[in-house]
Design goal:
Elements: E1 2-11, E2 14-24, E3 29-33, H1 40-47, E4 55-60, E5 63-64, H2 70-78, E6 80-83, H3 95-106, H4 111-124, H5 140-152, E7 158-162, H6 170-186, E8 191-196, H7 199-205, E9 208-213, E10 216-221, H8 223-228, H9 232-239
Parallel strand pairs: 3-8, 3-9, 6-7, 7-8
Antiparallel strand pairs: 1-2, 1-4, 4-5, 9-10
The structure holds adenosine-5'-triphosphate (ATP) and magnesium ion.
Length: 249
């Protein structure tokens, strides 16, 4: 469904992606793992056509993103849902207005249809009766869930999660990880792409893990393959004893 073919991305003198080859299969959870600054968010931006490769190709549903017209890009993005690192809710809008926002932007649904969809996605994330509340009074976990409901409301084919649990307490992390799994099970055709630097979450969540290191894929495989890999980069990530270029911020 999504392919990176020999993608390089250079900013000034800095080569962030260096011949990245990647396959993200349809209907599964693929988790992209890598230390901070490794190019995970840059990779996501290429998938959405928000950035173009310096060389190589990004293919989404058989089409080269770099060759898409503006209307093709808009059409592709309307099939994507995105959960941002910080929930990025509009503070002056109610939960209902926040979740309806992408529906009004990209689609032409009647009000009853929109309300039906909002109720459905709020049920999926386990929140009810908060439609009239403002985001300011919600807990961090609730905000994240509203953000997920908003990402889901357009019934996307691809859902992108950029570091969905970074900076959250362990209980909220576990709740969000469980929710990613639940949403994926409830929507079997949904392709989920999760960006993370947490190996534990990767093993618990992913059908496929892709480890990016020095702008290339160090290993792509199942959680089982990661557990038994003898690749020193993977072992270092597992042990948490990261040094030198593997040091976390
Ligand atoms: N628009 C840009 N212009 C110049 N450099 C950029 C741009 N976007 C990203 N970079 C650089 O590319 C590198 C990778 O950034 P990216 O945001 O993808 O990292 P990341 O793996 O998502 O890290 P984190 O885990 O901290 O979110 C960084 O060195 C960053 O400074
Ligand atoms: Mg990032």
């Amino acid at each position: 469904m999504i392919y990176f073919k020999n993608v390089s991305k250079i900013f000034g003198k800095k080569k962030v992606l260096d011949g990245l080859n990647l396959h993200i299969p349809k209907g599964q959870i693929t988790l992209i793992l890598g230390k901070s600054g490794e190019g995970k968010s840059v990779t996501i931006k290429h998938i959405m056509g928000l950035m173009q490769p310096s060389s190589g190709q990004v293919i989404v549903d058989g089409k080269d993103v770099g060759l898409m017209s503006n209307s093709e890009l808009r059409n592709m993005r309307s099939n994507f849902g995105m959960l941002f690192q910080h929930a990025a809710l509009f503070d002056s809008m109610t939960v209902l207005e926040n979740i309806m926002f992408p529906l009004k932007e990209h689609f032409h649904f009647s009000l009853p249809e929109m309300l039906d969809r909002v109720e459905d996605v709020l049920n999926q994330v386990g929140l009810q009766g908060i439609e009239d509340k403002l985001p300011g009074i919600l807990s961090t976990g609730e905000k994240k869930r509203v953000g997920l409901a908003r990402a889901l409301v357009t019934n996307p084919k691809v859902l992108l999660y950029d570091e969905p649990t970074t900076g959250m307490d362990p209980l909220v992390c576990e709740m969000i990880d469980n929710l990613i799994l639940k949403v994926s099970k409830l929507n079997p055709d949904l392709t989920s792409i999760v960006i993370s630097h947490d190996m534990k979450a990767a093993l618990a969540l992913a059908d496929k893990i892709v480890m990016i290191y020095n702008g290339k894929v160090a290993l792509a495989g199942t959680p089982g393959e990661f557990k038994t890999s003898k690749n020193p980069i993977i072992r270092q990530f597992f042990s948490g004893k990261v040094q030198g270029p593997m040091e976390f911020l």
